[in-house]
Amino acid sequence: MSRDDDDRRPAWPGLDDSDADLYYDVSDMRTVAEKLLVQLSTMQGPGGNRNGITGTVETLTRYFSLSEEHIGRWPEAAALTRSVGTGPDDRGRLLGELYTEFVERFEDVIEAIRTSADEYERTNPV
Fold first, then answer.
1. Which phi and psi (to 5°) does residue 2 adopt?
2. What letter would DSSP give residue 11?
3. Residue 15 three-state SS
4. How far apart are CA 63 and CA 92, in angstroms?
5. Helices and strands of the chain, counted as H and E runs
6. Where residue 113 falls among pLDDT bands split at 50, 70, 90?
7. Higher-pLDDT residue of 34, 60
């Protein structure tokens, strides 16, 4: 791609004042972050019980081990059982690690929305 091609591209929305269609609402952004935070709270902290009252990592690893008994003994099911790291001595370890990573990234998304809202409020007060 040549430099001339770059000059013919439309401007990135929001990078200049010529984009009249750009819309953001800091209040809405903060509301979304707060709603996500409420959802996140169900994935953190102490676990529930065998009925799965919460979806926390602790509940997952303490009460919901997955073994061949639950998934099946056919080759693909056995492979899934091994991949999520379940069994008598390793109850959902890998699945728990993946879930923990998901929760951490969820926290990052909430923080990014809050940071963006703060930046919009600071640089583009309405």
1. -90, 165
2. P
3. coil
4. 10
5. 6, 0
6. very high
7. 34
Residue 5 DSSP SS3 = helix
Question: What is the torsion angle, in degrees rounded to the nearest 10, for the CA atoms of residue 106, residue 109, residue 113 and residue 115?
Answer: 110
- Count of Cβ atoms closer than 10 Å to residue 49 Cβ: 10
Distance CA 67, CA 89 (A): 11
Tokens of residue 5, six digits: 């091609």
pTM of structure: 0.62
Residue 32 DSSP label: H
Sort residue 54 into left (φ over 0), alpha (ψ -120 to 50) or beta: beta
Mean pLDDT of the residues in the chain: 75
Distance CA 35, CA 102 (A): 17
Spatial contact of 30 and 117, defined as CB atoms under 8 Å apart: yes
The residues spanned by each domain of the chain are: 23-123
Please report, as a single letter, which amino acid is at residue 92. Answer: G
CA distance linking residue 119 with residue 123, whole number of Å:
6
State the sign of the Cα–Cα–Cα–Cα dihedral 116, 118, 33, 101.
positive
